[in-house]
Amino acid sequence: MTDDSTTKRWFVNEVLPLERDLVRFVARHCRDQADVPDIRQEIYERALSSTPQDALRSTRNYVFTIARNVLTDRARRAKIVSFEQFADIDTIGDVDISAQDRQMTSRDELRRAMQGLDQLPPRCREVVCLRKVEGLSIRETADQMGVSHHTVERQLTLGLRALANFMLGGDGRISRSSGTAFVRRKTKS
């Protein structure tokens, strides 16, 4: 058993600097964001109650393993559990947690982008997919769709704006307002 001063020093020097990443990780995998502080405290409590300092090689892996276990325990106790929640938590192993976290973030962003694409009108979706996914030029896209290159440019602009809006938390609707149009003002002579 270690003494309290060693445990406190380990906690302050090794565990607390991980708090920002830990909170971000927990928030990403927690259904109710109001539970994040409680989960963080439970992780800290488990880490302090069983500090294996003599055999500890990576405090980061140790703390994130505890976090994964706490999230898994809470998900099992919940009445409604999404399959994706377990799938994302279970994919985390003892490998580099930050790489796994980045991979899950990328997967979530891709899922969100696909949802945004699905909300676009058919022609707009087709233009965005042909240009940005398949990599066709404006001319090739216009030829394949049988429309002018001006139509492709306009649909691409509208689609990318709507997609960016959706990715940033908006509704992702096409806005055809003339907010970007050049407006002439009369000047007094």
Mean pLDDT: 77
CATH class descriptor name of the largest domain: Mainly Alpha
Named at the architecture level, the CATH assignment of the largest domain is Orthogonal Bundle
Question: Structural class given helices, strands, pairing?
Answer: mainly alpha
CATH superfamily of the largest domain: RNA polymerase sigma factor, region 2, helix turn helix motif
By DSSP, the count of extended strands is: 0
Q: How are helices and strands ordered from N to C?
A: HHHHHHHHH
- Range of helix content: 55-70%
**Weakly predicted, low-confidence segments:** 178-189
- Report the sheet with the most strands, covering strand number, pairing sense and barrel closure: none
Residue fraction in strands: under 5%
* Radius of gyration computed on alpha carbons: 25 Å
Number of helices: 9
Shape: elongated
The separation of the N and C termini measures 89 Å
Q: How is the CATH topology of the largest domain named?
A: Rna Polymerase Sigma Factor, Chain: A
Number of domains: 2
Task: Walk me through this protein's architecture.
The chain folds into 2 domains: 104 residues, RNA polymerase sigma factor, region 2, helix turn helix motif (Rna Polymerase Sigma Factor, Chain: A, Orthogonal Bundle); 57 residues, Orthogonal Bundle (Arc Repressor Mutant, subunit A). The chain is an all-alpha fold and 189 residues long. The N and C termini lie far apart (89 Å). The protein is 67% helix and 0% strand. The radius of gyration is 25 Å and the shape is elongated.
